[in-house]
Amino acid sequence: MVAAAAVGALALAACGSSSTPAASSSSPAPASSSAAANKVGVILPDSASSARWETADRKYLTDAFTAANVAFDIQNAGGDKAKFATICDSMIASGVTVLMIVNLDSDTGAACETKATAQGIKSIDYDRLTLGGGASAYVSFDNVAVGKAEGDGLVKCLNDAGVMSGAVDLLNGSPTDNNATLFKQGYQAAITGAGFTIAEDQAVPDWDNTKALTIFEQMFAKNPKIVGVDAANDGLGSSVIAVLAKNGLAGKIPVTGQDATDVGLTNVLEGTQCVTVYKAIKKEADAAAAAAIAVASGQPVATNGTVKDSKTGMDVPSVLLVPQPIFKANVGDVIADGFTTAAKICTTDLAKKACTELGIS
Q: Is pLDDT at 138 greater than 70 in this prediction?
């Protein structure tokens, strides 16, 4: 009954990384429970590429599994592929009935899912599709739509400032993350479709914000005559803003991001970042938990589309949620959704002033 209720909730919900990972979260199933035979293992990727993995995903997944009375074990690989593999092996040995992963790259993720399949354990890809992995379902946001929201947002900021053409830099996510490829597909099409050209175009290994700063410094030195920057997430965006600030251009050249992190939202309020993309992570976590419970119980997952695995050519049954662009004017939407608080984002003089003007408290 729990699984059926969760699947029903999923159908309604269907609409997506501070450096020290939290300790693993786990809970045994109660002895007297129809869900007692099921245990879900969750591997999160890191806590450096985006704060969301520990501040949001862990919490919401924990809440969802606890409410469903399902045993779970949530661990974070800390950006370490060897640790990811070790966690995978230990979860399989512990008897999980479903394995939900956010891969560090498709090769590592696929190796984990292949081991799970050999032991009769089904897998769920969470947030990132594992190419060649063979997951039973994929739960994420429509990542091309996420990228399009970034690109459209950048174009809006430029047009609002009276800029209708010019060169834009692209600072992309990790080349080993399939999501980064989809994000770029969305924002590059939006930017070039609006009449702008692409100047520099670089990927950032492992979504590393320190590497991003160095890479963008080199990009900017090579071609400083740009009108905007599409940075693939808020962390990369902050690195871009730091470089622009050193050159007296923060707030003058629009910058994008995604994840609606506290830092990203503060940047938006200050005017140094023109847009972030909010992915209601609670909805994503709830949908993923419902999918895992359904798979563990032999129930069908209530999907709303498919995503092609470019390595196998297979269409993976998917739950694709809808992202929301966040500009300065609608930052309050993220707070109203309970994702963060005014105290966490109205933290600088400029941000406090904007919060007062917007009635955010």
A: yes
